[in-house]
Design a protein that fits this description.
The complex is a heterodimer.
Chain A: H1 5-35, H2 42-62, H3 69-91, H4 121-144
Helix pairs in contact in A: 1-2, 1-4, 2-3, 3-4
Chain B: H1 2-39, E1 50-52, E2 59-65, H2 70-85, E3 90-96, H3 104-114, H4 119-133, H5 155-161, H6 165-180, E4 188-191, E5 194-195, H7 201-216
Parallel strand pairs in B: 2-3
Antiparallel strand pairs in B: 1-3, 2-4, 4-5
Classes of the chains: A mainly alpha, B alpha+beta.
Amino acid sequence: MLTTDRHQGKAWTILFLCWLTACVSSLGSLFFSSVMEFAPCVLCWYQRIFLFPLVFLLAAGLFPLDPRVGRYALPLAVAGWLTAAYHNLLYYNLIPESLEPCRRGVSCREEYIELFGFLTIPVLSLLAFSLLITLLFLFKRSVSR
Amino acid sequence: MKNHVIFGLASLALLFSFWFGSAYYKAKKAESMSFLAQENAELFIREHSQSLGSDEARVHLVEFMDPACETCAAFSPLVKEIMEANPGKIRLVLRYAPFHEGADTFVKILEASKKQGKYWETLNVMYRTQPFWASHHDPQPERIWQFLPKAGVNVEQIRKDMEDPEIVRILEQDMADAGVLEVRKTPGFFVNGKPLQVFGHQQLVDLIEAEIKLQYGE
């Protein structure tokens, strides 16, 4: 458990960075849909469902610092990561068309942006969830030391 | 205590960035739209586009609409009101963006009614009877026919004229222009090329009045 203040300070910083990642991703996602008016596809919505609660859940885990916050945050982050991974497979045509779950409305293959030539929205989502999971594991390690 | 301060400052910084980013993006977009309006006026007004109001009007209100869109119907009397309040200064130009599934049919009927000189009458009847054939975003084209005689059109002639391939070309052109102008929702309003950025009746009135001031120097 938390033995020293320094340990606690480090753990808090990791969780804070994790919260910051969730915030930036959520606001970025809202920027795409509300400001740039990109319509989110079905898979994007599932990823948002897993992402948005993390902003509040992680903030609650910061005050006071809850060493067990990973128990509640990780299932969301992992579920989001799996959805994002599936979305990427679909987006880059690694899964055949017949498995596509979104028939009507916006296609999950709709291409909106490509930053620096490779950063598409599904890639950004996968990176965000990967970072969240990594930080949550680092947090777990730093509190159990 | 220090942690609370960091958290608070970070929250503020995040919200501010979002707000600033939105304002910046919208300003950029308005700028590029007004450039588009100067360089490619035909993106907004095509040869085939129906318009209402004086040809001398200096304020062009371009509306991308869908006959099956409930908000377009609700805005129709409001637009009329604004035009009546500023006689001779506003010209309304209608463009098609039938995003609802099956809404193409209504555009075809409208275009066919144009051949009988009953375009605006037919549009008016469509908007007023819309709850009967397009409620809950589920257009039922077969239900419109019973109402068409109210517009004083020859219904049999419309059934024939609406198959004209020229109408499909008009639809495709309008949808392509809507794509370039990034119209993703209806109604999509432009006032002399300036997009209505925050949707609402008052916002539209403000945008039009600002443009009237600019053009007529009141």
